[in-house]
């Protein structure tokens, strides 16, 4: 890992380490921009949240070896 990165967010780190960011649909972004998160239907929000969890796991698996030296 690199503690000097300007951003520690999932989107940024996913792009750096696992070569992909979060999975937002255009429809989701439009709803959020115009009405806010509370108006995003569960049918859109569920897969978005699940993809965040998968990206978090992929990032963890990628970075874990960097932390083994501290055991």
Write up this protein.
By secondary structure, the protein is mainly α. Helices cover 62% and strands 0% of the residues. It is built from 3 helices and no strands. It has helices spanning 10-17, 26-35, 42-67. Helix 1 packs across helix 3 (42-67). The longest helix is centred in the C-terminal third of the chain and has 26 residues, at 42-67. The protein is elongated and about 45 Å long. The model has no long low-confidence stretch (mean pLDDT 92).
Please render the helix and strand layout as text.
Elements: H1 10-17, H2 26-35, H3 42-67
Helix pairs in contact: 1-3
End-to-end CA span:
16 Å
Largest sheet: none
| N-to-C SSE string, H for helix and E for strand | HHH
Low confidence ranges: none
Structural class: mainly alpha
Helical residues, percent: 55-70%
The helix tally amounts to 3
Rg measurement, Å: 15 Å
| Assembly form of the protein | single chain
Concise overview:
By secondary structure, the chain is mainly alpha-helical.
């Amino acid at each position: 890992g690199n503690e000097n990165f300007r951003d520690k967010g999932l989107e940024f780190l996913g792009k750096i380490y696992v070569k992909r960011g979060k999975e937002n649909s255009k429809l989701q972004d439009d709803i959020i921009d115009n009405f806010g998160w509370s108006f995003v239907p569960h049918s859109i929000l569920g897969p978005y949240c699940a993809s965040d969890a998968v990206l978090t796991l992929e990032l963890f698996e990628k970075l874990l070896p960097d932390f083994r030296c501290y055991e």
